[in-house]
UniProtKB/TrEMBL annotation:
Gene3D superfamilies, alphabetized: SGNH hydrolase
Keyword Repeat: no
Superkingdom of the organism of origin: Eukaryota
Biased composition range(s): Low complexity: 329-353
Family note: Belongs to the 'GDSL' lipolytic enzyme family.
Single annotated GO MF: hydrolase activity, acting on ester bonds
One Pfam short name: Lipase_GDSL
Name of the protein: Uncharacterized protein
């Protein structure tokens, strides 16, 4: 009953956030410009890391693919291929949007490595004196997921407004920096409650999945609104978004055409008799079961997609870039924000989301309860070649 009441309070807080008044932006359109991009500069976490953690620490190892947190190329690999563009990647597995927001006790609160996204940008600027052409450079960005797992794992209650604002502030930094970024594609968060990390946790408590889903929805709503605000105030910046929740729903609804058959379990799992406490064995492929049909799985491990799922994400990002671009016009006061999202097959759909606000800071017991789910499921991940050390 204690968790139920705490969960209800969190749910109500998330609903109240969605009810806050926001601005609806009138948008005229111009043709998309995906054909103009010749280079990608990437910031983010393990979803976008193409080998930075591997170069530093030698993980993740096979059967992970060439330093990716998947069994093959990830979404920025696929996107670069579609665009025939070069890639300069600064994403690190385990990176958060902002270390400053992590509670004391979080794994990376005071760690120099991995760098959060602002530190990634600072390092890039410090190591370069010639910057890419803003007109032909695309900046893919995915961040925020690890802020939740890190905070919850340390027993804290993450505030979606703070984390979403940190991502939005990074976009503002990109624009204001010497890079003068004017083309950005942002992935919204997938539904945490649907990941095997939560849904398959052996220590799951009632309501954990719903709470994780509520946190995701609130984060995405706030970030979507803040992105709209950025474009309202600066009509020269183009920010495309990919709604991963909607994309996965679309793919799941079209299994005959998508080819996916398993949306809940990971392809890569730990053998029942594996020694999870052995560092040596954590690098032994004999500890793992690998499914025979990875292309039919949405998840490669407990939180990362398969390369085929990444292909869908990359294609959705390409479709978002190729779609008519928004020109921000006037605004009127209302209780919702209209946004365009890209689903499976590159179809654009209009969705309505709430405005921004702050989550209540009084639900500590709920946070502690859901943290059990994160730490319980994550306890086997070090066996997957210690990848979790820079993935969660």
């Amino acid at each position: 009953m204690l968790f139920a009441s705490s969960f209800s309070a969190v749910a109500l807080a998330c609903l109240s956030i969605g009810a806050h008044a926001a601005a609806i932006h009138r948008r005229d359109t111009v043709p998309g410009n995906s054909a103009n991009f010749t280079s990608l500069v990437v910031f983010g976490d393990s979803f976008s890391d193409t080998g930075n953690v591997f170069k530093a620490y030698g993980i993740p190892q096979p059967p992970y693919y060439q330093g990716r947190y998947s069994n093959g190329p990830n979404w920025v690999d696929h996107l670069a291929t579609r665009l025939n563009a070069t890639m300069n990647n600064h994403a690190y597995g385990g990176a958060v949007a902002s270390k400053a927001l992590l509670p004391e006790g979080a794994q990376y609160k005071h760690a120099a490595f991995p760098p959060d996204i602002s530190e990634q940008l600072a390092a890039f600027l410090a190591n370069n004196t010639v910057y890419p052409d803003p007109a032909t450079t695309l900046y893919p960005l995915f961040a925020g997921a690890n802020d939740y797992t890190q905070s919850l794992g340390a027993g804290g209650l993450p505030n979606p407004k703070d984390i979403a604002t940190a991502v939005a502030d990074f976009i503002r930094k990109l624009r204001a920096s010497p890079l003068k970024a004017q083309n950005i594609v942002v992935l919204l968060l997938p539904d945490f409650g649907k990941t095997p990390l939560i849904s398959m946790s052996k220590t799951a408590q009632p309501g954990e999945q719903a709470l994780a889903t509520a946190l995701t929805a609130t984060h995405n709503s706030i970030l979507t609104q803040q992105i709209a605000d950025i474009q309202q105030n600066d009509t020269t910046i183009q920010i495309s978004t990919v709604d991963l929740v909607k994309l996965i729903q679309d793919v799941q609804a079209s299994t005959n055409s998508s080819g996916f058959r398993n949306f809940t379990a990971p392809c890569l799992t730990l053998k029942p008799d594996a020694n999870v406490n052995s560092t040596d064995q954590s690098r032994d492929i004999n500890n793992l079961n690998i499914c025979s049909t990875p292309d039919e799985y949405l998840y490669w491990d407990f939180i990362h997609p398969t390369t085929r799922a990444h292909k869908f994400v990359g294609d959705a990002a390409y479709a978002a870039l190729s779609a008519p671009r928004a020109l921000v016009g006037g605004s009127t006061s209302t209780n919702s924000t209209n946004s365009t999202t890209t689903g499976a097959g590159g179809n654009s759909t209009n969705s309505t989301t709430g405005g921004s606000g702050g989550a209540s800071g009084t639900q500590k017991s709920a946070a502690a309860t859901i943290a059990v789910g994160f730490t319980g499921a994550a306890s086997i991940l070090p066996v997957l070649f210690a990848a979790v050390a820079f993935a969660l």
